[in-house]
Amino acid sequence: MNPFTTHTGHAAPFLRENIDTDLIIPKQFLTTILRSGLGRHLFNDLRYRQDGSENPDFPLNHEPARSATILLGGPNFGCGSSREHAPWALLDYGFRVVVAPSFADIFSNNSFKNGLLPAIVAPGDLAALAAHPGDLTVDLQTLVIRAGDAAYPFTCEPWGRAALLEGLDEIQTTLNRLPAIEAYEARRGVGAGWL
Question: Residue 175 in 3-state DSSP?
């Protein structure tokens, strides 16, 4: 996983409350264990009409939102089932950050584990960010989102922040502790020949 320190990009507002994981990536697209190719199905039931054409009323179907790398969402973003495909789809589409007033716990955990930053902001700050016409800069080191001359604080899980800053997934985090694990296993085996 690549380290995340700062990210600058256009933000797409989709401020709906309770955006659940089935809305992010519908169940019919969960047949893959590959992380690529899911972006084209992101928000499928909202982005497309039944005939497969784009829904002109959906905000991500218009520039500059179509090429945004920061998604602004409403409260309780990522609620619903615990599908890891949801952050996979967001990342594959091109998003690197989701900013919302709150996130479902499992979605937040899955996001950190896959390199997607779930940044929590106050509702008033979210409205100000959504109204900003230019790019935003998300600084994970200082926990600030910059919009022009204005700066808005955000929070996130400390363990997830540390993992993103260092570019560590769960496997690399475990491997970094290998000497301690091996020492424990050596101590555990002494006097326990039955192990």
Answer: helix
- With vertex at residue 91, the alpha carbon angle to CA 155 and CA 79, rounded to the nearest 5 degrees, is 60
**Domain 6-189 of CATH type 3.20.19.10:** yes
Distance CA 39, CA 32 (A): 13
Please name which of 39, 13, 44, 15 lies closest in space to residue 27, comparing C-alpha atoms. 44
- Residue pLDDT, tens place only, 86-105: 999 999 999 999 999 999 99
Q: How many CB atoms lie within 10 A of CB 192?
A: 8
- Helix, strand, or coil here: 53? coil
Mean pLDDT to the nearest integer, 60-80: 96
- Whether the Cβ atoms of residue 129 and residue 145 lie closer than 8 Å to each other: yes
Residue type, 135: D
Closest CA to 1 of 108, 91, 113: 113
DSSP conformation class of 136: E
**pLDDT tens digits along 107-120:** 999 999 999 999 99
Which amino acid is present at 67?
A: S
